[in-house]
Amino acid sequence: MTNMNRWSALIIRALFTRLDSFQTIQKDTQMATNILSERVQILQDKDIITKAKLPQNRHMKYLLTKKGRGICPIILALMESGDTWYKDSHDQPLTLTHKPCGNPLVMQVACSACDGILLPQEVTYKLERAL
Question: Are 61 and 87 part of one and the same domain?
Answer without folding.
Answer: no
